[in-house]
User: What shape does this take?
Amino acid sequence: MSSSSAIERLPLEERFESLLGAIPDDGTSRELVRRAFEDASRLHAGQVRKSGESYVAHPLAVATLLQELQMDPATIAAGLLHDALEDTLLSTEELRRDYPEPVPSLVEGVTKIGRIHFDTSRDHQIENLRKIILAMARDIRVLIIKLCDRLHNMRTLGHLPEDRREAISRESVDIYAPLANRLGMVLIKSELEDLAMMWLHPVEYRRLADAIELKRRERDEFVQESIDTLRDYLKTVGYDRIEVSGRSKHFWSIHEKMIRTGLGFDEIFDLSALRIICDTKTECYGILGAIHGLWHAKPGRFKDYIGTPKANGYQSLHTAVVGCRGVVTEIQIRTREMHDVAEYGIAAHWMYKDGRTSAGSDKQLEWLRQLSEWIQDPGDSSSMLDTLKRDVFADVVLCFTPQGDVIELPAGATPIDFAFAIHTKVGERCVGARVNRRIVNLRTKLQHGDTVEII
Ligand code: MN
Assistant: This one.
């Protein structure tokens, strides 16, 4: 994703017009987004960000990130309104009256995640993850909006006091980056981690940045030599419509790898890594064979993630060879579509839903298709998200207090169990309960995501 710093210097109106220009001119989409922007501007009027900019610059930036991910107009509109319930006088009722679904539900979902109280201790990470997954479970787009919100907040973190910067950075690394990874949104994951590292480990970050800068020229030359060699060779064996590029490693991942492996910066940074993007799956395997004819393969380093995709939908062929000048070179081979999925993950689904590709028989899009089916039909029990729920929430049910705290209960728990889980005294005095604002029988079985209020 572009860091859009050039865009951010433009006046708000121009930024908005450039966003609008990228939205389909179909008679409804632009109107929806324009209305959301006008409402957000009016509702946030007078509010100022720590940077001194008017507040609406933030939702506008979030909406722009969503547009870059090619999300649908309703999600972009929800991005514009994502802070309006929490931070302005807008009520849920007005939102529901003024906007068609799914806009109100998306905004409410993002607001709900924002209200979850995170425990910063590391022991609670997994717990926090589950809470968020639960909160987003009703529509995956809620989480995509939340990730863009977090990314923009991280990009503009410099304006906050130090303790806030640290807390937000920590939360980004512990909770949002792993979730982005789970959804295959690797570009967002990497940027969140790199920005967090800048604030959490400033000395190491600076050292790494300097070391990378120092070696950049030498490295760039070598990578270019590898690219040229490989491209020319593949051309001679008939692959002339492919893209070969070097891959950059992210700061955080270099830092982690140095700690994990005990290797020095040079040993990790000197690893050469190339990527080949071609048209078809058949070509991927053909190119792999060709490369192994040019350079010796390192035994045990071949991985076929096309035949067996990763859980988050990632597909590619991986191999490592003894490349130019005898340097071990990691190579990834994938199609354009696999590449988009590799970088944008679940969000790539929206890029491809307009029928530019035939998802019909491609096993690689099965995961995305299941998810999209689930989005259209929340009742579909065979969906991927239900699998996720089964895996992550086996035998437990997670419910909210009206304040947004999460209470974990055994599966099959009732409002009485919920009351006792809060406090024995609450349990003993419990005479009734509202679930999702409706009075229910005290023996009602609670479901994931229910908001329970004890009377
Ligand atoms: Mn926000």
Observations:
- The longest helix spans residues 202-236.
